[in-house]
Amino acid sequence: MACPFQMGLQDATSPIMEELLHFHDHTLMIVFLISSLVLYIISTMLTTKLTHTSTMDAQEVETVWTILPAIILILIALPSLRILYMMDEINNPSLTVKTMGHQWYWSYEYTDYEDLNFDSYMIPTQELKPGELRLLEVDNRVVLPVEMTIRMLISSEDVLHSWAVPSLGLKTDAIPGRLNQTTLMAMRPGLYYGQCSEICGSNHSFMPIVLELVPLSYFEEWSASML
Amino acid sequence: MLCQILGQVKKHPSLIPVFVFIGAGGSGSVLYVLCLALFIQDVSWDRKSNPEPWNELGPNDQCKFYSVNVDYSKLKKEGPDF
């Protein structure tokens, strides 16, 4: 979950998110280098007593500042495309879970083996127990087995929503009349929080998503108890 | 127009990298869009004779521009017939 005054991305829970974290670090480093270079040049330009009023052309520096940015852009684009293609790899999910966005809650359907459906409403601030997170907790969490590839099918029953879990690097729009698919693979057990990411009305900020990743035996017990 | 470009390049040789990168980028994007328009079966160009070309996709058709590790010729059809 996000912490107050957090500056970076949340800790990665899936391999793709780990790749995205490293890519973000790589690109941010390039951005910092360019910004500090520009800041340094601006400061030297403003504090020098030297003047040169007759610059006509500067062939060498023009070549450098054409080729260098092109190389930098290629150095950003290649890892980016690599991760993009990695996200689309076929990975044979072992479980399919459907989620439908409503105004203003999510409903989940586990229909691979039995017919398990439930709604997931946010717990109002007045009803929170001590230690629970404001605007993030829900009454029925999405329990999933850890270290297994899970296919999420996402759609909406009314308006646009978006099912997002930043820790797993997931954000998929829930569009009425359309079925979107994303795959989920968590490397460690725990609780992972997300919030609806597409404006959907007055309670758009109050329809969070909580994934509870547990070992497979716990998942089987839970799904048997929920039927 | 090519004569103009060559003339400018002779006078200012630092323009060569500019033209190389802009040329590569521009022609790359045009070629990619043409590739998508001609070979991807997501768009219906002819509403009378081929209104829904996405219905004719088989398991061996490659829709992605570049396939990393999936050999499309080896895939079999898993779902029921439409």
In brief:
With 227 residues, chain A is α+β, with helices and mostly antiparallel strands.
Structure overview:
The complex is a heterodimer of chains A (about 230) and B (about 80). Chain A has about 230 residues and is an alpha+beta fold. Chain A folds into two domains: about 15-50 and about 55-90; about 95-225, Sandwich (Immunoglobulin-like), CATH 2.60.40.420. Chain A has helices spanning about 15-45, 60-85, 215-225; strands spanning about 95-100, 105-110, 115-120, 140-145, 150-155, 160-165, 170-175, 180-185, 190-195, 210-215. In chain A, β1 (about 95-100) and β2 (about 105-110) form a beta hairpin. In chain A, α1 (about 15-45) packs antiparallel against α2. Chain A starts with 14 loop residues before the first helix and ends with a helix. The mean pLDDT of chain A is about 95. Chain B has one domain (about 1-75). The longest helix of chain B has 25 residues, at about 15-40. By secondary structure, chain B is mainly α. Chain B contains two helices and no strands. The mean pLDDT of chain B is about 80. The interface between A and B is medium-sized, with 13 and 13 residues. Chain A: This is Cytochrome c oxidase subunit 2. Chain A: Belongs to the cytochrome c oxidase subunit 2 family. Chain A: Its main location: mitochondrion.
